[in-house]
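re: that chain from earlier
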Amino acid sequence: MSKTLLIVDDSSSMRQTLGIALRGAGYEVVEACDGQDALGKLDGRKYNLIISDVNMPNMDGISFVKAAKALPNYKFTPIIMLTTEGDATKVQAGKDAGVRAWVLKPFQPPALLDAVAKLVSP
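^ sequence. v structure.
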């Protein structure tokens, strides 16, 4: 059975790049353009992993993670932050909110796929 991942990023080119890498590795991918859009897609579907940007309009990544973790169906869904933001305070805020991994952009697809494979439960 294939695993479904939710990608949350306001950059359509970033969603496209991620989508190509992840679909190429055999994952199903659902895309959202910001935290609010992503919350609308947390409608009971099973996601094995969420990859989110931090800086987005309408709802930023950390707020989205907090909101997602408050939903019973997604409380234990692993979340990777994929961002240009390397600030220690932001990283800590992400960890406190429930982020499992922090990957900096520009990312190397093999390194990201490795992180994804580690977090996607069998």
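The helical segments are 12-24, 35-41, 61-69, 88-97, 109-119.
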